Amino acid sequence: MGAAETSRTRRRAIPWLLLALWIGVLAVVAPFASKLADAQHDRVTDYLPASADSTQVAKIQDRLPGGQTTELVLVYHRDGGLTAADRTTAARQVETIAEQHVLTGTPQPVPSRDGTTVMYPVASNEPGTDEKKRDALVDDVRQVAHDQDGLTVQVGGPGALATDASDVYQSLGGPLLYTTVAVVAVLLILIYRSPLLWLVPLVVVGTADYLSTGVAYGLNQAFGTTISGQSTGIMTILVFGAGTDYALLIVSRYREELRRHERPYDAMRAALRGCGPAVLASSGTVAVGVLCLLAADLNSSRGMGPLGTVGVLCALVAMLTLLPALLVLFGRRVFWPLVPAFGSTPKARRSLFAAMGSSAGRRPLTVLASGAVLLGALALGALNLPGTVKQQDSFVDKPESVAALETLATAYPERSAQPIDIITPAARADATLTAIRGTHGVASAQQGRTGGGWTEISVIASAPPQSAGETATIKDLRDTLKGSYVGGPSAQQIDLEDTNARDRLVVVPIVLLSVLLILIALLRSLVAPLMLVAAVVAVWGAALGIGGLVFGPVLGFEGTDPGLGLLSFVFLVALGVDYGIFLMHRMREESLNGAEPSAAALTALRTTGGVIASAGLVLAATFAVLTNMGLVQLVELGFVIAVGVLLDTFLVRTYLVTSASVALGRKVWWPGRLSRKPDPVRTERQPEPV
User: Fold this and answer.
1) pTM of the model
2) β-sheet bridge partners, residue 458
């Protein structure tokens, strides 16, 4: 009796100890979590390829006298032609800016041939690498350079573009978090239909997100991990999406076990034994898949790997410790009004997933072939994807810097208004300048700062920014100027595209191999993992194809981000296999209990289909939040992943994987022991329909 009483006391104490432990962890993390925003940077070098020419240019420019240069272009335009008063106004405003800020050189007017426009290139080393000072400089210049008496004034150039992009990335903090919380809350209320239950997973996933910000800051301080607006936004999405998915699976299994166990503690222990391996394997798959981005050469992609992994692991730890503790402490009443009573049986009902499983089980080959044809047809839409998005087309709503670029392109068709930056050894500066001026497509070249053994040369091309002509000029300069570096905004876009192509060739095989090995270890099979990997790759192709049918024709996007293919692949493969693990793990569990292959497949779908559908809706909705952001690359990424998750949830998992499992029978577990002979029936129990 004493031992039994001691055991009950220990069971009652464990949830409270876990809760106290989490309070202590949050108290330790709090000072670091609040500093993550200060560690976030969206400088050019935080996104550029690590080894590219344009990255080297940006880094060397930071070390030249005066540090990093913020380059702006003031554009004065009147449709009917500039008047003398307009030119006076422009000169006066530029003079005021020069009085208020330290500029490198005296800005000189460059009139257009048609007389409608005059531009003033303005540069300053005043902000250096401080993004806040750069944004303040741009804001100050815009306050001075404003429209007057019908004269249109626009502030553009690389510095203004960076500031406008920074404004969008800053919005990824609060608005993204609040929108994600609201979306998840609404979906949980609809799923659970309980006034209290929905709040528990939401509080836990919010706690996991807070923990992840502290850990991410620690990584930044210890290892110099890149923290950007894009990577922190994706981390938040992963924490809420993956964390809520794990919560749905645990709560569903816990509800099932409460009907078999009198005490909530025993029910939770049984639930974690049942679904814990699947949650661990699925989170491990996502974490490893995202961590493979460390093999990327692109700084923005590589920095996203550790942060995404941190987000998934923090969500996992919270869902396996804090969520069970809170659910046990609240007891059965947390499910009110649909409380699962001990010894009760769920109401028998014909579920949607039972019907879907039956249709897949009757004609598995027909269903499988039809689904494969559909996915293949959708994937053809990828051929309609627009080309690489230009810098001026990367904003959903056109900011002032983009409007300035468009005005310049129209007014100065004979030359670029965006410089090409060249860094050359100081000892060869004169020879390099001569070679540049002799290169086809160069309109002008001017020597700039010298320091640390390097000299800066600013080049203006005769072709518009990011046109085929300017691209050819940049490539000719790189071929001609051996030992020098060619950078600048247009060169950066070229390097982004080339590096993303390289990263796809490197990262994609690593992701596929890593995920495959995890699935083989979990399922003790070779056929089932290959089937799951093939399914998620097909989903990725179909999701990209749908993007090709929507981005240009419907949304009017002029291009796609070079990193869309790689990032969408990594997330869709890792997250898609996540759901496959839920399904196949339950199928294997049923097979170990003696069920025939077709019965095991259909039972697994019937018992996990509702959870997978709910999880898929939540995950798709969280990534869909990105479609409300102001950058085309985020909209496209959120759209493709959300569509892919929905395809995976309602077509691939429910129909194709189930029908393939039924068609293959025991061969799905080859070469494991389940493929050779039936396992002895160990326990007979009927899982609760979901």
Assistant:
1) 0.84
2) 421, 446
